[in-house]
Amino acid sequence: MSETTTALVTGANKGIGYEIAAGLGSLGYRVGVGARDETRRETAVGKLRAAGVDAFGVPLDVTDDRSVTDAAELIERLAGRLDALVNNAGISGEMDPGWVQDPTVLDLEVLRTVVDTNVMGVVRVTNAMLPLLRRSASPRIVNVSSSVGSLTRQADPDIEIGPVMAAYAPSKSFLNAVTVQYARQLAGTDILINAACPGLVATDFTGFHGPRTPEQGASTAIRLATLPDGGPTGSFFEDDGVVPW
After folding, report:
1. Active-site choice (18, 29, 168, 182)
2. Which helix (DSSP H) or strand (DSSP E) does residue 59 occupy?
3. How many degrees, rounded to 5, is the angle at CA 92 between CA 153 and CA 101?
4. Would you state the pLDDT for residue 105?
């Protein structure tokens, strides 16, 4: 079994996921770059290696059982264990103009697709990787969420939370709730699991609108992936601290 600390970041070929991989790599982690697209995945691996990161590609479609199982087997062969899992892969789903998803006319297939990636994909990957995480002395799981998943903020008319997003925002609320359930189930173990909000980041996901850079968006996830033993679990964080549920 390798003594090198190993991390897997899903959706790591670009944007926030890439910067999470780069940040963990700069801290000495060997980083698995999880991504569906082979060309983009290998391009990202090449860039990371050129920057001095010990990176390797992990073919991974979080919506596909076989792909996830194969990814876990690959990491077991290469590393023997997993020290950090960052569930970053996510989609917004089809939007109307103005980044609106109107619940009164929402296509249920859009909702299914978003939940399959943003929630079921996280459960699928996490459960496949748990045996490898249990072999680590200090295993960490980070679910990349969003403050739009905060019911407290969504329900407060005095808080500007952005447009109505009836598929994406509830998927992040669902993800937050699932994170809490994992924390409850894993209480008393060494596994710490938390949700991270990157903020509004200028990437292709947002049409490159947003005040934060991908590097800034990656910071909270990196911090949670490297928490010391005894750190928080079952919580929701952004740069400024805890995000209300």
Report:
1. 168
2. strand 55-59
3. 70
4. 97
